[in-house]
From TrEMBL:
EC numbers: 3.6.3.-
Membrane topology field: Multi-pass membrane protein
Gene Ontology molecular function: ATP binding; ATP hydrolysis activity; copper ion binding; P-type divalent copper transporter activity
Chief location category: membrane
Pfam families: E1-E2_ATPase (PF00122), Hydrolase (PF00702)
Membrane-crossing segments per the record: 38-60, 72-92, 98-115, 250-277, 283-305, 594-613, 619-639
Family (UniProt): Belongs to the cation transport ATPase (P-type) (TC 3.A.3) family. Type IB subfamily.
Locations listed in the record: Cell membrane
Entry protein name: Copper-translocating P-type ATPase
Amino acid sequence: MFRRRFWVSLVLSVPVIFFSEFIQDVFGYTAPIFPGSVWITPVLSVIVFAYGGVPFLSMARTELENREPGMMMLISLAITVAFVYSIASLFLPGTTPFFWELVTLIDIMLLGHWMEMRSVRQASGALDELAKLMPDIAERVTESGDTEEIPVSELGEDDVVLVRPGASVPADGEVVEGESSVDESMITGESRSVDKEPGSEVVAGTVNQDGSLRVRVTKTGDETTLAGIMRLVDEAQQSKSRTQLLADRAAGWLFYVALGVAAITAVAWVVAVGFNITVLERVVTVLVIACPHALGLAVPLVVAINTSTAAQNGMLIRDRIAMEEARNLDTVMFDKTGTLTKGEQGVVGVETAGDWDEQRAFEVAAGVEGDSEHMIARAIRNAAAERDIQRAKVSSFENLRGLGVRATVDGETVHLGGPNLIEKLGIERSDDITAFAEEAGANAQTVIYLIHDESEVVAAFALADVIREESRQAIEALHGMGIEVAMLTGDSEDVAKAVSEELGIDQYFAEVLPEEKDTKVEQLQSEGKLVAMVGDGVNDAPALTRADVGIAIGSGTDVAIESGDIILVDNNPLDVVRLIKLSKASYRKMQENLVWATGYNVFALPLAAGILAPIGILLSPAIGAVFMSLSTIIVAINARRLKGVDLSA
């Protein structure tokens, strides 16, 4: 609505400005004269006032009914005074209409409100990227037992859908048939897949691994995870920052100040020169200069640029107060799994036995796992690819549920699986393999064995949650900003200590139970620290709420996102650094704009009232309007400089 009214009003304003006598005098040109040309400016100005000014008059009525004068009443006062004075000047000799000021004022205010609403829409565009994680098509099971492909949007509660291996779960639901493991890292942040059987709950967007599942849909529409995320857009629109609230209060104060100064001006000039057109000009000049051209744009323009810049950098602002608060943070606490780590398995160690070397072990293991979508299979394939090792050709592949896989390589049988497979085959491990497995187990790492000819363990792979390279950079950057870094994890002391030492974390909390996470945040706050919590799982939600600034990973659960103040679309810890930098820069721009906008009014109002009239300095309404327009340009230029802020980490 604001965009449409802005463009229509702007188009109508061009001829108003072009045919304005004041503008012609300033720029030294003469507009063409033809029958009816004298009415172009007043007629179009009336249309702009009626069309573009109506939203402000309507919102001002609400402020008036609530007896809380603010920005809308101040804007309405100015455009109404400008409109009435300009219309009256058509019939009063010795006065100069400034319809051009009326239309430009309305245009600028429409622009400011459009920019603020547009910033929310740009954040919505980033949320659309999250929506791409969800499947578009579901396989619904019919009454006959067959399946039919339908859009996910057509699914209803109690529908049964077939989820094939490697496919995404299309809706929240309950497993009614089949067994499999599901990658829920996008929901819980935990890298290990979760076994599912009849009665187990599954969440939309998670990825089925190696077995087929039939799932009965339990949640659709607004109850789904995605719908919960999209509600952030509306909440962001309703949220106002402390600086925006300060600007609204400043506008309310300025409303009373303008009326007070106008009344004093009228009385003083009537006493001095009697009631004439000069008194009217003084009062109008005061009320026009009091109009918040610059104040109306001071915060909305910065907020618009702030929100769009944040969205472009993968940050969604749900609570603007938290965005401002981020500039004062002195401690950032990270959840480990899925935040500082990738939340997916990776090969962190390998041990071979006999005449097998590492290259041969990876060739065979990657070949055997070549077609599997299981996260362990992907980890082994990725490790082989990183080492430029080609996969061996395999045949007779067979999945051994709960044990591992079996295949034939060069005519020989090989197995790949965990400890259960070793026990099933009754195979003894070499001393080196045993020691390797024990050390990996002590570090909470998963061990997968490569078995040759059902008789010999020839290699062992240690898998663990891989630390993000961005985590190291983020922690180093935070330390450079004087911010301490803490870590929360439910893992063992050994794992927590190893990760903490590797990343240079200042403080860590290990073996933390889910219900204890928020108490750890409270513990740091009790030490006088301003704490941000970064997490992605259901268990992180209380801590996100408890923290001064809750930062949720966008691919995490809807519970975590609903509890967070700021959402990171990507699982990138460096975005925390960018967030703090943007918070500092945005707050600085808001303060600069508010100081300029309000300071200008404080300086200009006495001049408009005629305090320097005794020495021959007297502002006409038109000149006052020019000065106010210049202040708006300065505020806009200063806000635009936020786009160039360096967010590199």
